[in-house]
Amino acid sequence: MNSDRLAADGGSPRVVVAGETLIDFLPDREGSLRSVESFSRRPGGAPANVAVALSHLDETPAFSTRVGDDPFGDFLVETLADAGLGTEFVERDPEAKTSLAFVALGDDADRGFSFYRDRTADTRMEPGAVPDATLEAAEWVHVGGVTLTNEPSREATFDLMRRARDAGATVSFDPNARPELWSEFDYAESVQEAFELADVVKATPEDLDELDYDGDPESVGREITEDGPHTVFLTLGSEGSLAVTTEASPWSDGGDVVSHGGYDVDPVDTTGAGDAFTAGVVAALVDGRSLSESLAFANAVAAVTTTAAGAMTALPDREAVREFVASQ
């Protein structure tokens, strides 16, 4: 971890990320999973992707997760360590398996998922896994929506958001809609509850399909801010991204709307692009960049990620992002 990326106390990470780590199985061809004959194993999980992306961007976070005490868990722990992440808050569950996700790729490298996640380790994350001292030293805490689908990980996520806000950290939330995972709890109600606890929301239009928002992206962003967050980032695929803020946002000048048109790339796999964007935004804002600079940087991080297969394995470092932007 670089010394200039540490919190003011000289040793603790400035960012905390919490959530699922799992195995993505990538297909050997485009199309329906029923036509796929073989898969390649890749590390994944949206919060894990964000954590590794931040490490690649020299903003190594503390990462809290839970994986099975099984060979897939071994692989994931080794992967996180190889990415420079500490494993202090990586729990091994002797009574549950590691989650698996089989990915289907569409014609435009877009993807669908089929999850094997019934009572797996990441559904069993427990409140208090991140100690108060770590939160008090952090400037930013990020969580996602997948861990809201089951208890006790649901309460663990909400508890972390509450304690992070009480500690004075900026709390960000990504709904990361995965419809097939929601059976025990209602997705829309859960996301609304998380919005009330979040300072920053990053979402896609698809994440918001089941919520009662309507209109163009700017209007939707404005509506979300009325539910609690002071800053909303909406990623719009090939159309780039935008940020909507209220006067309460530290990056606002009276309630700004800032947009960036994105970058032209020939995508190979869009898995993890949204997580790369999130990491780019967090790294840039923690570094003190402006909202417009942060959007441009985050879009570049996401664009580079789509040019290679896999989520975590395609994440770029700062030099790769600089070279990409220069080539544009």
From TrEMBL:
Pfam families: PfkB
UniProt keywords, alphabetically: ATP-binding, Kinase, Nucleotide-binding, Transferase
UniProt-listed Gene3D superfamilies: 3.40.1190.20
The UniProt record lists the keyword Nucleotide-binding: yes
InterPro entries the record matches: Carboh/pur_kinase_PfkB_CS, PfkB_Carbo_kinase, PfkB_dom, Ribokinase-like
Keyword presence, Cytoplasm: no
Molecular-function GO term, any one: kinase activity
Superkingdom of source: Archaea
Domain called Carbohydrate kinase PfkB: residue spans: 14-317
Family: Belongs to the carbohydrate kinase PfkB family.
Protein name as it appears in the record: Fructokinase
